[in-house]
């Protein structure tokens, strides 16, 4: 196991901000993970698991512990055990360090449905069940068959079914009740050969219809291409040299409110906010999801807004961006100052506390 000291973390993240890790290990095997966990435990070090770096804000002071950079690679395919009443399915088994878009490409080449709307999302496989990655009508929880992980509490590998992962909107047991306990090493996805693409979002439908023969059903690849085009138009697709790509993607989650709160917002703002059904809330009353981007804009922040070297994307209000090149752009403190200013304005205007999506690493 090779341990690096004072390794700068900013280049390992899509935001490009943050100081060094006191120690860093790149794990290419499960044995590396076991050894690194033991190394940190013996020295009383805090352990942080880093994947693709796409959903992080690293402190300017860095991380005073061991960063474990998961780099396990590999894809394999097998038949899924049959489920009564469902069509035959295939298991795409992916190591945690595999780039997520490699899985997307494999599924598209084989015409397997289930993750086509998640095309273009940056990061690696290991982060998909942690965040319950979702976009344009799909969530990875709907196709996860099994998650293999190293349990730091039990010091053993476990395999968890989808039901055992505790999935909900942008949540799982890995980032909530058991945050810091598990290191994901592999994810098995259950996909449907020849299945129809998911077309639940009007935005995707419009993109398909604009360049597709009327009456013809779009392919999975066409839907994935439309999603990538939409993401790029919003600065949510990693394109080298594009300043709108130096971000952590969506910085805030879309809040879920009660029907009564929604009606109050509509009355106060003089218009009905865009919204989507969110299912029953904790009190079993109807709940609605409001786009955080709409709330941010109504609170006075528009695309291209700038605060120091941090700003809002010129293409999407929900993305905060690092304005500048490595070493010359925003600091983590500037990013968080902008985020806090936005969140305070939204709470003051609508009584909604926006929840951040990126993980904050180190002392902020």
Summarize the structure.
With 364 residues, the protein is an alpha+beta fold. The protein is built from eight helices and 21 strands.
Task: Tell me what you see in this structure.
It is a single chain. The model has no long low-confidence stretch (mean pLDDT 91). By secondary structure, the protein is an alpha+beta fold. The strands form 6 sheets. Strands 6, 7, 8, 11, 12 and 13 form a 6-stranded antiparallel β-sheet that branches. Strands 1-2-5-3 form a 4-stranded mixed β-sheet, covered by helices on one side. Strands 14-20-19-18 form a 4-stranded antiparallel β-sheet, with helices on one face. The longest helix is centred in the last third of the chain and has 19 residues, at 332-350. The chain has 8 helices and 21 strands. Among the domains are: 3-70, Uridine Diphospho-n-acetylenolpyruvylglucosamine Reductase, domain 2, CATH 3.30.43.10; 75-214 and 225-230, Uridine Diphospho-n-acetylenolpyruvylglucosamine Reductase, domain 3 (2-Layer Sandwich); 256-289, no CATH class.
């Amino acid at each position: 196991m090779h341990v690096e000291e004072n390794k700068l973390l900013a280049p390992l993240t899509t935001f490009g901000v943050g100081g060094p890790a006191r120690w860093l290990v790149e794990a290419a095997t499960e044995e590396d993970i076991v050894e690194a966990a033991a190394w940190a435990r013996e020295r009383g070090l805090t352990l942080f698991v880093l994947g693709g770096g796409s959903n992080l804000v690293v402190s300017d002071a860095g991380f005073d512990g061991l960063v474990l950079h998961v780099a396990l690679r590999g894809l394999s395919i097998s038949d899924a055990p049959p489920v009564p009443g469902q069509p035959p399915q295939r298991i795409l088994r992916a190591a945690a360090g595999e780039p997520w878009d490699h899985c997307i490409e494999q599924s598209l080449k084989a015409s397997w449905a289930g993750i086509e709307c998640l095309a273009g999302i940056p990061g690696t496989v290991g982060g998909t069940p942690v965040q319950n990655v979702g976009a344009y009508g799909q969530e990875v929880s709907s196709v996860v068959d099994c998650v293999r992980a190293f349990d730091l509490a039990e010091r053993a590998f476990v395999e968890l079914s989808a039901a055992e992962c505790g999935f909900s909107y942008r949540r799982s047991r890995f980032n909530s009740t058991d945050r810091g306990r598990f290191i994901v090493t592999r994810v098995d996805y259950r996909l449907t050969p020849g299945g129809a693409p998911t077309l639940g979002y009007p935005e995707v439908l419009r993109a398909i219809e604009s360049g597709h023969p009327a009456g013809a059903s779009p392919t999975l690849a066409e839907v994935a291409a439309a999603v990538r085009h939409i993401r790029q138009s919003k600065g949510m697709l990693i394109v080298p040299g594009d300043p709108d790509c130096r971000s952590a993607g969506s910085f805030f989650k879309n809040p879920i409110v009660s029907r009564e709160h929604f009606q109050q917002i509509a009355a106060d703002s003089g218009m009905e906010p865009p919204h989507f059904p969110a299912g029953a809330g904790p009190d079993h009353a109807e709940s609605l999801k409001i786009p955080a981007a709409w709330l941010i804009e109504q609170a006075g922040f528009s695309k291209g807004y700038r605060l120091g070297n941090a700003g809002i994307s010129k293409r999407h209000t929900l993305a905060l961006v690092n304005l500048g090149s490595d070493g010359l752009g925003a600091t983590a403190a500037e990013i968080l100052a902008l985020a806090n200013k936005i969140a305070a304005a939204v709470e003051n205007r609508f009584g909604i506390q926006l929840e951040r999506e990126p993980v904050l690493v180190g002392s902020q």
